[in-house]
Design brief:
By secondary structure, this protein is of the alpha+beta class. The protein contains 17 helices and 24 strands. Strands 1, 2, 4, 5, 9, 11, 12 and 14 form an eight-stranded mixed sheet that branches. A five-stranded parallel sheet has the order 17-15-18-19-20, with helices on both faces. Residues 1-42 have low confidence and may be disordered.
Length: 703
């Protein structure tokens, strides 16, 4: 027996609630299947549905049949209840147990589903879903429920309501605010939603078993496209995963090409805003509202560059709020969700194939190939772009070309290959200070020294495509700096990236390329007249002091008393100790328990790709001062400072360490000379240490 339905209902109630659909259409003055217009919205159709027995002017009355139940969705009718939502994969909802008592439509669920160990990502409380035929575009969504917000979860077309209700920021540095959130209070739920399909679903889901929830009213009001205000610049939005993301200093040296891409544009012609975040895919960038926020923020004529594919490979595609997609789901997201929604807002999409991962432990001579072997996402994206006339940058193919151009040693160096003493930054698992906590060379994430070539590739391809007649590419290329366009045309980027030295981009000289390029970019270290850095040459005491004083804005007098000559490790340790105490009055946050705190699932900064399962790797040396075997060799007048610098973690043993391992050596080698490359390593560490952990790591010059 249907819940809430009583056979003793009065004839009057039966008449008002169960009126045949055709008579309702006639009463509203519309043809069957045609939704009534809201006369208050000139020239635009508003979709208004009333689920009560009391007729409301301008509303479509959704009627319940005592024998057949609720009206089921058909394209001809243009609305109705469905048994599966439009989410991917479809979520089961119920129609046969929906009933009505004249105040709305109700459902109660005797049990819920939750996957063991994945209860937060894969659950279903069932409930009901009402589908409305509505073309792609933006809509103000209003839902009035029969049940209180505490008992009811309302959503639209498979989106994750728990994320939609939260404010905050889309990026790690908190520079890109979340502008559009849902609101749920009492029995009302509102959200502004950009639809890509020709229909949308309003989902009503109970929060408690055996607790009735229901729907009284739905109003969808179409919203106009947002025109760019006079005198404002067009915006280029970038949307992607961790390989596009803009990083903060606490994550150094990790970088994404979106972090440096904005530097290639003429700031007087365009704004560039990066909405990318680690762990994102076509699926969860949609469900959490990230795409939606861009589309409501952007104006007609703005550009949206989209790169997804890495997290879409995750084998959780059948979980409700997983990241992964099958090939069919990946294609559907692009074809039916993203592209129509972007275009409906008058914005212009550009697809970018995901860069290829690399084999972290590749041996010398290894030839890199496209890493997408099982789910051929780049091929799918290219095919859709061809069929729909969408501009596409094939970063996937170009990334493989670049890896093979610079070779295995140099490629491994610019991916997240970390050894002890390179950075005080951290990942999900804790500090990088003693090496990578996951004890591997990460072949997905990379350093700024690779972010710049990727940004260069994207810009070059846009200029190239524009020259071949692609109007969208040409328009974006026109927003680039003039010298960047010239560099892209002629293949000469030395003026754009003067920090790239000839002897540190390939082979063994590239081992500390990331640190060297940053110090060259900051003007702290320098190349010779031939454009070489000479990484294996010994640095002098004076040269190191000058570089450190400039880098940390310290008076060189702080370092008085060190005679010039070849820099040794014991002298370097003492100088670093002087710099630390001159700069800091308290320990930087990198050194505190903060750096051993795990970022857990659900945290906005959590990236599942960075989670090795390890927990809380700490900043300080793994080998104590007492365990070092050669401290007796340290000059007595330097011993106190060297010990303090070591225990502060300002430098560590260089003997016995290796990238891809979390290990410290037991020999400090106090008398060993310091090369220019090793000096760059130490200087980079101090440079990161002096910056706030939450500051965006997008600095190209000193203050």
């Amino acid at each position: 027996m249907r819940r809430f339905l009583k056979l003793s209902l009065s004839a009057l109630l039966l008449t008002s609630v169960f009126t045949p659909l055709q008579s309702r259409s006639e009463a509203a003055g519309t043809e069957p299947g045609q939704l009534p217009l809201d006369s208050s919205v000139q020239g635009e159709r508003a979709y208004k549905f009333n689920f009560t027995s009391q007729a409301k002017e301008g509303y479509r009355s959704v009627t319940y049949d005592v024998y057949d139940g609720v009206p089921l969705y058909t394209p001809a009718a243009g609305y109705g209840f469905v048994g599966q939502t439009s989410a991917m994969p479809p979520r089961e909802v119920h129609t046969s147990t929906i009933t009505s008592d004249g105040t709305g439509f109700y459902i109660s669920e005797p049990s819920f589903y939750a996957e063991p160990k994945y209860e937060k990502d894969n659950y279903n409380n069932y409930g009901m879903a009402f589908r409305i035929q509505a073309p792609p575009g933006a809509y103000s969504v209003y839902v009035k429920t029969t049940s209180d917000a505490a008992d009811t979860t309302v959503s639209v077309s498979g989106m994750q309501t728990s994320r939609l209700l939260k404010g905050g920021f889309w990026d790690a540095a908190k520079l890109v605010p979340i502008k559009h959130t849902a609101a749920a209070a009492s029995k009302e739920w509102t959200y502004t939603y950009v639809n890509g399909r020709d229909y949308l679903d309003i989902e009503i889901e109970p929060n408690k078993v055996n607790t009735p929830v229901g729907i009284e009213e739905i109003v969808l009001k179409p919203l106009p496209k947002q025109l760019r205000a006079a005198g404002t610049l067009p915006t280029v939005f970038t949307l992607g995963d961790s390989t596009v993301k803009s990083y903060t200093f606490d994550e150094a040296p990790m970088s994404g090409w979106g972090q440096v891409f904005d530097n290639l544009f003429n700031r007087e012609k365009a704004k560039v805003v990066n909405y990318s975040m680690g762990g994102r895919s076509f699926k969860n960038a949609y469900t959490e509202g990230r795409l939606n926020d861009i589309l409501l923020t952007g104006s007609v004529g703005d550009y949206l560059l989209i790169q997804f594919g890495h997290n879409d490979e995750s084998a959780d595609e059948f979980r409700r709020y997983g990241r992964g997609s099958t090939e069919a789901m990946y294609e559907t997201y692009i074809r039916e969700v993203y592209l129509p929604a972007v275009r409906a807002r008058g914005m212009i999409p550009v697809l970018i194939t995901p860069l290829s991962r690399v084999k972290g432990d590749a041996a010398p001579g290894h030839i890199y190939t496209n890493s997408f072997k099982t789910r051929l996402f780049p091929d799918i994206m290219k095919r859709i772009a061809r069929e729909q006339g969408v501009t596409l940058v094939d970063l996937n193919a170009e990334s493989v070309k670049y890896y093979n151009e610079i070779g295995v040693e140099a490629t491994t160096a610019v991916f997240m290959s970390i050894e002890a003493g390179e950075t005080p930054g951290k990942t999900n698992d804790g500090s990088y200070a003693n090496g990578h906590p996951s004890k591997k060379i990460d072949g997905t994430h990379y350093k700024e020294a690779l972010a710049k070539p990727f940004a260069r590739i994207v810009a070059t391809e846009l200029v190239k495509l524009g020259g071949e007649g692609d109007r969208t590419a040409a328009a974006i290329a026109s927003l680039l700096r003039g010298d960047v366009r010239d560099a892209a045309r002629y293949g000469s980027w030395s003026a754009i990236f003067p920090e790239m030295a000839k002897d540190t981009t390939t082979g063994g000289g590239a081992y500390y390329r990331n640190q060297i390029e940053k110090l060259l970019q900051l003007g702290v270290l320098h190349k010779d007249d031939r454009g070489n850095f000479r990484p294996d040459e010994t640095i002098t005491v004076d040269a190191f002091i000058r570089s450190l004083a400039k880098l940390m804005e310290l008076d060189p007098a702080v370092f008085a008393g060190y005679p010039n000559g070849k820099l040794t490790r014991e002298v370097m340790g003492a100088i670093l100790d002087d710099a630390y105490h001159a700069k800091f009055t308290s320990k930087p946050k990198y050194m505190t328990d903060y750096n051993g705190t795990t970022v857990v699932p659900g945290d906005p900064a959590y990236d599942p790709n960075l989670d090795s399962g390890a927990r809380g790797a700490m900043y300080y040396p793994l080998v104590s001062w007492q365990q070092l075997t050669d401290t007796a060799q340290i000059a007595p007048h330097l011993a106190v400072k060297v010990k303090d610098a070591y225990e502060l973690g300002l430098f560590r043993s260089e003997k016995g360490i290796a990238r891809g391992q979390m290990v410290n050596g037991t020999e400090l080698e106090p008398k060993a000379v310091v090369t220019r490359a090793k000096a760059a390593k130490a200087l980079y560490f101090m440079w990161v240490l002096e910056h706030e952990v939450s500051q965006e790591n997008d600095l190209s010059s000193l203050k």
